[in-house]
Each structure stands twice: as structure tokens, then as C-alpha cells.
Amino acid sequence: MNKLVKNERVMMILIPVVSAILGLIAGAVIMLLGGYDPMLGYQSLFDGMFGTPKAIGETIRAMTPLALAGIAVAFAYKTGLFNIGVEGQLLVGWLASVWVGYAFDLPAVIHIPLAVLAAAAAGAVWAFIPGFLKAKFHVHEVIVSIMMNYIALYTTSSLIRTYLYAGNEKSYDIKESASLASSFLAQLTDNSRLHYGILITIAAAIVMWFILNKTAKGFELRAVGFNQHASQYAGINVGRNIVLSMAISGAFAGLAGAMEGLGTFQYMGTFTAFTGTGFDGIAVALLGANSAIGILLASFFFGGLQTAAPQMNFMTGVPSELIQIVIALIIFFVASSYLIRWVLGRAGKGGAK
Amino acid sequence: MNFLEVLAIIIPAALYSAAPLIFTALGGIFSERSGVVNIGLEGLMMFGAFTGIVSTLLLQDSLGAWAPWVAIVIAAVVCAVFSLIHAVASITLKADQTVSGVALNFLAAGLSIFLIKKIFGKGQTDFIQFRIDKVSIPGLSDIPVIGKILFSNVPITSYIAIALAFAVWYIIYKTPFGLRLRSVGEHPMAADTMGIKVVRMRYVGVMISGMLAGIGGAVYATSIATNFAAGTIAGQGFLAIAAMIFGKWHPIGALGAAMFFGLAQSLSITGAQIPVIQDIPSVLLTIAPYVLTILALTGFVGRAEAPKALGVPYEKGRR
Amino acid sequence: MEYVIEMLDIRKEFPGIVANDNITLQVKKGEIHALLGENGAGKSTLMNVLFGLYQPEKGQIRVNGQEVKITDPNVANDLGIGMVHQHFMLVQNFTVTENIILGNEPTRTGKINIKKAAQDIQELSNQYGLSVDPYAKIQDISVGMQQRVEILKTLYRGADILIFDEPTAALTPQEITELIQIMKKLIQEGKSIILITHKLKEIMSVCDRCTIIRKGVGVGTVNVQETNPDELAALMVGREVHFKTEKKTATPKEAVLTIKELVVEDSRGVEAVSSLDLSVRAGEIVGIAGVDGNGQTELIEAITGLRKIKSGSITLKNQELSTLSTRKITESGIGHIPQDRHKHGLVLDYTIGENIGLQTYYQKPMSKSGILNYKEMYKKAKELIAEYDVRTPSEYTQARSLSGGNQQKAIIAREVDRSPELLIAAQPTRGLDVGAIEFIHKKLIEERDKGRAVLLVSLELDEVINLSDRIAVIYEGKIVDIVDPKETNEQELGLLMAGGTREKAGGTA
Q: Which residue of A has its CA nearest to C362?
């Protein structure tokens, strides 16, 4: 067991898995304390996650923006930055995709990529600002990103009301030529909202892995994340890489918004509060150990939890906020991996004796 | 409407709005001065608001107008304990402090609504009957000119907040406790060699931040919002963090910054009554505090001002 | 025999390593006792145990004959043990007074009584001849004064036994003499001193007895009167040590690096390099001698492009460097062994192979159209690791896991392999054991013999005198004199480094 603990690769997988299990156990405890039945609670949860074709379809659909948000956070994190502004970048990306989707009449083969690119660009620009301020003025990107989140929230809402309002707290719908929805997929999954965005998501995960691990640029970005001084000494332009990293991260976040705008909803609502996807992206990235595969798996898990929460509420009365609590606890467990390592290390020593 | 009349509207509104920010920012100073980043102030404020409203609702039948005040005290204690989660994760388990803070925000948000739904069966609480009202201070509010501007129409909690800022300044800069707190945030190893218990100091710093953020949230809830729902504390905690940074981790600086943000926030509400301002599109007024924060951070604060050991878990024996 | 401190059979372990393996140390009252060992031998660890920062796994400590358990620095302080750390434990933006009273503050009705504290400190300072300004902030005072503050910290708490951890690292020869006077005064006032050092000359000049530690094990205690530096060195390292590196006379050719009237500002906007002139020729080693903080760091940063210059010119064989980016400067033929290998030289979380490729990853064959070819990178790394005898489990091992000496070898391998016209070595042997030091000195001389220009910056005067063909003394940002190592000595250099002038006329320029 001790040898296992020393193996970093194994720990990278064990820690998230153990944390998820611990989180679910803690969730069960909370359900018990609240007077609910944990067995029934989790059963209806798993049912709602993949018990029916529709559930699976919805889970995969919920996974798409979560995975992209997670990729956005992980990409920035690998380069030493904390992109807590995914929420805002997602919103502007959503707006950009819906706007392009509504304002133009183009064949789908052009319209969709255009709308998607618009979303990525919007997200990139929104993330560029905290990146630039950090590189040039050494302002901490966390606070600026949080501020940008609120600015995005109020600005997108206001812009929709002024230019795209269709009444009922929604914008106009996008043209069909821009939509990622698919009747084929819907049929396959018993009328879920599953759309082609999942393909974009998987492609994005591959792109992230490729850039970071196979290119010279990725080598530079990771070096900057580990040690800015040594990077500078190696001739790497630290400031430029910080900005580039945030912009790429923001582009992924914008794509997450496009998933919602072009796939799930086909419009954008005038929000008064955050969607939460951006913050969930942090949990996904952590649980996925900042790796492409891990993020896909983690986003599947979280997507399933979110999809199933109403089901659980319906069947057992457990408020869906329980999911938020479980997610928070999982984050704590992953972040405190020190403790898990220590416990596993101890277990190893005890076993050997 | 002349200038003085404008002041008489916006200054009291600013003081009203700033009080929760002041309490929370002062709390942040204790945590960060000891070396622990606390992004979780937002969640702590939320939990303080939750505790404040629920306590008031439960106590208002027996305690009447005293209920909100008692509720604030309860919120202080509860949130000090709640902040232990962040303390244990960051200090003892050496988790990434920013991540732990973000998780704390999730936890507070989820837990508070979970409990509300459990207790009240719906997503938001009832409105409290007794709130912390705006008052005009007898005597002082009759002073010509400044009486109307500084001493009328402001809840007492705002004055308490201002007084507290000065008290915190004294504690941090004039007492042994303050010296040791600061040493732990600047150079924990030096403090350790002088026999100061670094870990204990940091726990105290985080718990005080929890207590004050709890008070800030409860004050917000009982004087401004008067009920609790998911969107009650929307970003107040983050604004308080920004005020702390803008104020360079100094209590009086944070006081000034918080008042500035309070002013910016209140303009989006009172602006409709004021000529010139009423013509500005409301969205610009709403985002003004956030934009101003970014500008302020860029223009005024250098990285050099933060406590040197901020965000770095302390490990004995690391050389 | 009155022992004031006895550490008996102390064993201290860290994960994977035994830092102290049954070491015994006995210090008599009123003596200056040296603790000698190479870098990494375990001296600081042993003293940290005495000071309560670490707990030993086994062993006993006695103070004045009584057995004690020193669980933390407070207990050590109560027992009268005080430590003057090598890396000062001072809070930069606190005042001298605040640093000294921290944890022991005199108060009046809850408020710190700064006036009384300052007064008490002034008295102590007069009594022991340790001049300080009680109200100055640490970030504004000199290194010498900072050290005096460290000493006062121990005296303020009533220390009778003072531990000095490598106190002379950052001092000029003159300041070292002053420090020795201070230590003698402390002994006169009834204190006992333990001096941790690896500097043999200091031990000979001021210590009564010396305990030697080698690789965590105690090797013996000797009377300083009855021994000599060669014997001590042999005990420290375990074999014969050659202090002087064998080298042929240099035959320098044309100038490779020419610096004219260089002005560079430091991070606070203060002039660190003030109109400096210097040239380095192919086939010679120029050593820069100077007290830390006189512009050496900024000079190197300017040459390598890590810092923008204010005015002046830096040319490498007719190419102006000061307007180029760091990468272009490296490409034009400069190799740089940085003074802080963990900060500038390596990305510790990368593998040793990736680190070896840190300067060339973007060029063919390691990289083509932006795609990295890791196979090529590791092939090169493997070659260099073998050639330079870098001890590592493999080229895929994280750089963090290698010892300091092997990390430095990897850096040198990387830099030298590019055959740079100019090789800059800044503190190349800091913190390394004797074996690594010998290797690096040999390599530098090799490069010089191949016809390269070598610029050496070091705070170890012995190293500068030993290796250089010419010594340039830097003081307050200028080269104040250039001397022939064969015709000078430490005293003269020390004088120049402190701003004085040579008494003798003439000398090589």
C-alpha cells in the first residue's frame, strides 16, 4: 500500500475517487440528519442519472457545458492561474452565440461554426481582461474575475432586454440553421435535449490535452505555471503567456455558453443570478485532477447529479441543494488530499505490520 | 435640488449600504493578516444572513425588537464555528486556500437553502417583523448642515461598524496580539522561532473573520433585506474582499474603501431621485461598483502590499 | 569539567534520510565551540534540535547538567539558549524594536510599551557594543545591522548560550573581524558560543574546540590549538582535499564581452550599476569579487536580458545585447549558470530531461512546427546526464528529487553543451559539497582552456582567487579595481570590496 501512495499516477486517480465516495457518504449522513431516507434518496438519484434512456441523454447533455467549464478552469490552473471568471465568460459566450444564431441567415454548415466561434471569441475577450491586468499590473486575477462575473451578469441581461427581447424574460430564439439540436438524438434518448454539442466537448478535451502536452507552447505555458522566474530565464515571455492562457481558458468557457445557447435552450434568458455552471467547473476540474479524461468523467458524474436532483426531490422530498452540499464536500476532500494521502499511508503501514 | 440636499440623500444611503461591507472587510483583515486567504467570506456572509433571519423569526415573538440584535450575536458565534471548516482545510490539511474558500461558498449556499426548505418548506423565508431601523441620532441630527447628512436616517449598526474599524486598528497595531498576528502573516518562521504558535494564531484569525463576516451578513439581512433567499447576499462578500485589498489590508483603509463601495451601490438605488444621475442607464449604475473595483485594484494597489506569507501553508522544518 | 550544553547520541530523521545519526556534542562554559561540516552534513539540523524547532527521535539533552526536553523555542529561550540564524528571521516591515520584542512584548494597560522596549534595547546595545537604530525598519537597514538585531534578539531574552549559524556568509572581511570582536566580548560577559561553520580560517582564528560532523555522523572533537586547516578539512570530507585547482596559465585572446558605462536600476528605481566598464576575453576567467548587494546581481541580469538597462552598452563580439530579448541574447552565444538554481535555473516540477531542454526546446530537432518531440529531448538529456555524471534514477525523474550538486551539474551541462562564447557562472558552488565543488571548478577551467570567455561572480573569496585569471572588484555598482590574483590576498581584496584603495601602486588592468 505504501508503494502505491508513493506512485503519483495512482494517487491522481485514487484521490478524486475516494473524495467522491466520501462526499456521497457525507451526503447520506446529511439526509439521515434531515430525516430523509438515504437509500431511497440515492436510489432515485442514480435512477435519475442513468436509469432510463432519457436520463442518460439528459446527463450527457448536462455534461457538455460542465466539461467545457472544467476544461477552462483546468487549462488556466495548469498554467498557474485561477480562472474563477468562467461563469461570466460563459454568459458572454452564450449571448454571443445566440446573437449570431438569431441575427444571421446562413446555411448550417457556416452558421453553426460561426456562432460557436463567436462564443469562443467572446469568452476569450472576457478572460483577456483579468489576464492582461495580471500580466501588466500584477493584479490578482481572482478578484478581477469575480467582478467581471457580475458585470457580465448585469450587462448580458441588459443587452437582451434592449436588443433581443422576446418577452417572458427570454431572448428571441436562434434560427434553426444555427441549432445544435438533433431530432435523431432526441429520438434515441426518449425526447431528452441531448444535442451534438457533446462532439464539440470531446473535441475540446482532446485539444486541451494536445496543446498542453504535445506542443512547445504548452511546454511554455506549464513552465510559467510552475516557475515564472525560470521561465523568464529560459527566454519565455511570461506576461504574454499569462494573457494567452487566460484567453484560451475563456474561449473554452465561452464554448460552454454556446452549448446552452445553441444546444439546450436555443435562446438566452435574462438572468438575475448566476447559472452556477462556472463554479461547478471548478469542482469538475478538481475532481478530474485537471486532466482531459478526468474532466470528462467528472463532468459526467456531476451532470448526472444535477439532472437527477429534481427526481430525487420528487421521490423523496430531499431538496436539490443537497447536491450543492455534496459537491462542496467533495471539493474539500480533494483539496485536502494531504489528509487522504496520510490516511492511505497509515493504512499501508498498518497493513504491512 | 442643491448639492447639500443631494448629499443628504446619498451619504446616509452610503453609510447604510456600507455597514455589512465594513464588518466583513474587517474580518477579512484578521484572516489575511495572519496569512490565510479567505475567499469564503461570501459564503460566511450568506450563512450569517441565514442565521440572522432564522434567529429573528424564531425569537421575534418572545424578544420583540431585541430579536434582530440577539440574532446578530447568534450569527457571529455560528459563523465563527462554520469558518472552522476553512481553517482546518487550509491550515491543518494545507489545502489550496482559494479552492477551500470557493468550496466554503458552495457549502454555505447549499446548506442555507437546504435548511430553509426543510424548515419553511419553500425557497425563501418570511419577512421579519422587527428590523434594525434607520434612526436619527437625537441631538446630533439637529446640527445645521452636517446633522442631516451624517446623523440622520442611518441604522445604528453603521456607527458601530465605523467605531469597530478604529477598534480593530488599535488592536492590530498597538497590542501584542496584533503584532503577533501580523508577524505570522509576514514571516511565520520568524514568529515560530520567537515562540509564537503560528497555527493557533491562524485559526484565531480565520475564526474572527468568520465571526465578523457573520455579523456583516446578519446586519445586511436584518437591516437591508429583511428576509433570506438564494439571491440575498449576491456578491457582498466579494465586494468586502475587494474593499480589504483596496484598503491595503489596513482597517481604516478598508473602512474608506467599504464606504466608497457603499456609495457606489447606493447610487444605483437612490440615483433615481437625483438629477443627472437619474439619466444614467440603470445597468451602468448597477455595474459601477464592480468596474470601479477593477480600476481601483489596477491603479492603486501593488502586489507588494499583501502580507508576505499570505496563501502559503506553514510547514515546520521547510528551509 | 563543567559542560553547559550536552547533546548525547542525538538521532534526527526526516522522510528518507537520517540527518543526525547518534551525534554527541559537549560544550564547555565560556568557550567558543565550532560545529564543522560540509553543506548538508547535518549541523543546522542538530542546532535546530537544540533550539526546539525539531524533536529528536532518540537522544538526551542536558543544560548545566540537568536533563531537559526542549519542545519548542520558548523552552529553549527559558533555558537560556538563543539562536542567531543564518537566514535572518526578521519581519521586513517591522522595526528593529518590534522584531526584538516579538513574543515578549512589554505592555502597559494592554498596549505595547514601545518606548520602554526601545530604551531597554538601547541599554543592551551599549553593553555589548552592538549598534542599532531601534526605530528603523528592517527593510531599510544594512545586512551587518540586521545581524546585530538577530544577536540582540537572543540577548533580550536573556540567552547565556548563543548559537551562531554560518554568520559570516554575507559579510566583508572587515565585518567578519568586527563580528569576531563581538563574540569575544560576549564570552567576556560570561556567555558560551556554538559556531556553526564550514570556514576553516574562522575556526582557527577564534574557536577553542571544534566538533566535526560528516554526512550526519559525529567524527570527533579536537582542540583548535592542536590542529590545522588541512587536518580539519580532511576530517570534514573524509579524504585529502586539494584547495587549489590545478590550472595552466591563461592565454587570453580578443575581447568577447565588452561593457561600457553601464547603468542599471534595481527594482526600487535606485541605481545598482553606475557607469560600469568591464571586458572579458576569450580564454580567460574574470572573477567579480564584491560584497552582496553591490550590483553584481543586477549586472548579470542586465547582461542576460533579465533586466532592462538604463544606459550604456553591452556587446558580445560586436553585437549589441542590451536591446535584445532574453532568448535572442541566449541564442547569440551566452550560457548562464544562475545564482539561485531553484528560482532561475530549474523548473523543479519538470523532469530533469525537460529541464535540460529548457533553453532549446523550441528549436529543431526537439520541436517542429510547434509540436514537441519528446523523444529527441530525452535522447539529448540521456547523453548529457552520462557525460556530466548527473546522479539521477533516470532522465524522467523530477528535478526536485535530485541533490543540489546534481541539479547544478545538469544546469551546467545544459549551458556548456551549447558551446557559448561567454559563460556566466553566478555563485556556481553555493550550497554544494566538496566533490561537486571540485567538479564544477574543473569544468570552468576546461571551458576557459577551450577558448571561451568565463565571467565568474562569487561571494566566496577563496573561489574567486583560486579560479580567476583577473579579479574585478565591484563596489557600489562600479568596478573599482582589477587585480592579479597571484599578487593579492584576502585582506587587500576585502579592503577594495569595502570601498578602500590599494596601497601598492601598479598591478594588472
A: A216
Decide if domain C1-235 falls under CATH 1.10.3720.10: no
Nearest residue of chain C to residue B185 (CA atoms): C91
Q: pTM for this one?
A: 0.85
Confidence class of residue B317 from pLDDT cuts 50, 70 and 90? low
- Residue C509, pLDDT above cutoff 50: no
Angle between helices B236-246 and B282-300 in degrees, nearest 10: 30
Chains that touch B (3 or more CB pairs under 8 A): A, C
**Is B164 domain-assigned?**
yes
pLDDT band at C506 (very low <50, low <70, confident <90, very high): very low
Q: Which secondary structure element, helix H or strand E, spans residue B223, and what is its range?
A: none
Domain assignment present for residue B140? The answer is: yes
Q: Please provide the average confidence, as pLDDT, over all residues in chain A.
A: 86
pLDDT at res. A44: 85
List of chain B residues whose C-beta atoms are within 8 Å of the C-beta of residue C113? none
Second-level CATH architecture of C252-496: 3-Layer(aba) Sandwich (3.40)
CB within 8 Å: C345 and A230: yes
Interfacial B residues in 153-192 facing C (CB < 8 Å): 174-176, 179-180, 182-183, 186-187, 189-192
Question: Which chain C residues touch A230 with a CB distance below 8 Å?
Answer: 343-347, 358
pLDDT tens for A91-124 read 999 999 999 988 888 888 888 899 999 999 999 9
- CATH class of the domain defined by A61-307: mainly alpha
C113 class by beta-carbon count within 10 Å (0-12 exposed, 13-18 middle, 19+ buried): middle
Grid coordinates representing A170?
427570454
Would the CB atoms of B297 and A139 count as touching at under 8 Å? Answer: yes
Write the DSSP assignment of C91-120 as a string of letters.
-TTSBHHHHHHTTS--EETTEE-HHHHHHH
Contact residues, chain A, for C327 at CB < 8 Å? 235-236
Question: For all residues of chain C together, what is the average pLDDT?
Answer: 87
Torsion angles phi and psi, residue B16, rounded to 5:
-60, -45
Query: Using omega within 30 degrees of 0 as the cis cutoff, is the peptide bond preceding C365 cis?
Result: yes
Residue B49 belongs to a domain: yes
Report yes or no: C449 and C248 within 8 Å, Cβ to Cβ. Answer: yes
In a domain, residue B66? The reply is yes
C212-265 pLDDT per residue, tens: 998 888 888 999 888 888 888 888 877 766 666 677 777 788 888 999 999 998
Cβ-count burial C352-370 (b if 16+ within 10 Å, e if not): bbbbbbbbbbbeeebbeee
Which residues in chain B have their CB less than 8 angstroms from residue A319's CB? 113-114, 117-118
Dist. CA C436–CA C447, nearest whole Å: 17
Q: How far apart are CA C357 and CA C353, in angstroms?
A: 6
Q: Using one digit for the tens of pLDDT, what is the confidence trace for C4-17?
A: 999 999 998 887 77
What is the residue extent of each domain of chain C?
1-235, 252-496
Collapsed DSSP state (helix, strand, coil) of residue C82: strand
Q: CA Rg, chain C, in Å?
A: 25
A4-13, C78-87, C341-350, C362-371: segment of lowest average pLDDT:
A4-13
Beta strands in C54-206 (DSSP E): 58-63, 66-68, 81-84, 107-108, 111-112, 161-165, 192-197
